[in-house]
Amino acid sequence: GQNIDQPTEMTATEGAIVQINCTYQTSGFNGLFWYQQHAGEAPTFLSYNVLDGLEEKGRFSSFLSRSKGYSYLLLKELQMKDSASYLCAVLDSNYQLIWGAGTKLIIKP
Amino acid sequence: NAGVTQTPKFQVLKTGQSMTLQCAQDMNHEYMSWYRQDPGMGLRLIHYSVGAGITDQGEVPNGYNVSRSTTEDFPLRLLSAAPSQTSVYFCASSYSEVLDYGYTFGSGTRLTVV
C-alpha cells in the first residue's frame, strides 16, 4: 500500500529552527509537496521537489532524497504565525496525490 | 482574481437529505478535484476532473456525484447524506494533473450530518 509518515505534533520556540520530516512509500514518484494549513483554513502551497537536494525559499527550505523516500521541511527564525499544520504529499505514478496526516507545529514564545 | 470559491462555508444536514457543494475557479485551470479532510487522516480524494466533460473517481467516491459542464465549475453532490459524511470538504484546482505549481484550494465547507 501507499503510505506517508510524518510526526503528529512538534513544539518549537520562537526564533529557533525546526525540521519536519516526511517519509513515503508510494507506487512511483512524480514529485513531493509541502503545504501549510492554519487551523480552520485551507492548505496553501509551500514547496515542490522533484529532484534530490535542497530548495530554499526565504525562511523555508525543503529537502528531498528519492533513494531514501525521505523529505524534510526546514523552518528558520520561527515566528508565532508559523504555528500551523504542515502537510506532506507525494504525486504517485498515476499523478494522484497521496497525503500525510500532517504535523501540527506549536510555537512557544 | 477570486481564485477558488466554495459555497457554503458551513452546512448542517439531516440524514437522508441531499445537497450540492459549489466550487468555481476563475484561473482557467483544467484540473479540479474534491477532497475531504477528517481528523488524524490525510486529505482523501473523492472525485476529480482533468477538463470539461471528463470526471473520474478518487479514493472515496461512494455517496458522491460530480459533473464538469464548464471549465470553471465543479459541483459535488451528496445523494443521501449520512453521518459518516460529516467532514470538511475542499475543492482544489491546478493548471494540470502534473501539479508542478501546486494546487489552489478553496476555503472549505464544514459539513455536519445529524
Question: Major sheet of chain B: size, sense and barrel closure?
Answer: 7 strands, mixed
Total beta strands of chain A: 11
Oligomer: heterodimer
Helix- and strand-based class of chain B? mainly beta
Tell me about the largest β-sheet of chain A: 6 strands, mixed
Strand fraction of chain A equals over 45%
Secondary-structure element series of chain B: EEEEEEEEEEE
Measured between the Cα atoms of the first and last residue of chain B, the distance is: 36 Å
Helix content of chain A: under 10%
Strand content of chain B: over 45%
> What integer value in Å does the Rg of chain A equal?
13 Å
Return the structural class of chain A.
Answer: mainly beta
- Approximate helicity band of chain B: under 10%
- Based on Cα principal axes, name the global outline of chain A: globular
Average predicted local confidence, pLDDT of chain B: 94
Q: If you compute it from the alpha carbons, what radius of gyration of chain B comes out, rounded to the nearest whole angstrom?
A: 13 Å
Q: Round the mean pLDDT of chain A to the nearest integer and report it.
A: 95
How would you describe this protein?
The complex is a heterodimer of chains A (109) and B (114). Chain A is mostly beta strands and 109 residues long. Chain A contains no helices and eleven strands. In chain A, strands 2, 4, 5, 9, 10 and 11 form a six-stranded mixed sheet that branches. Chain A has a five-stranded antiparallel sheet with strand order 1-3-8-7-6, with no helix packed on it. Chain B is mostly beta strands. Chain B has strands at residues 4-7, 10-13, 19-25, 31-37, 44-51, 54-57, 64-66, 76-78, 87-94, 104-105, 109-113. Chain B is globular. The termini of chain B are far apart. The interface between A and B is medium-sized, with 23 and 20 residues.
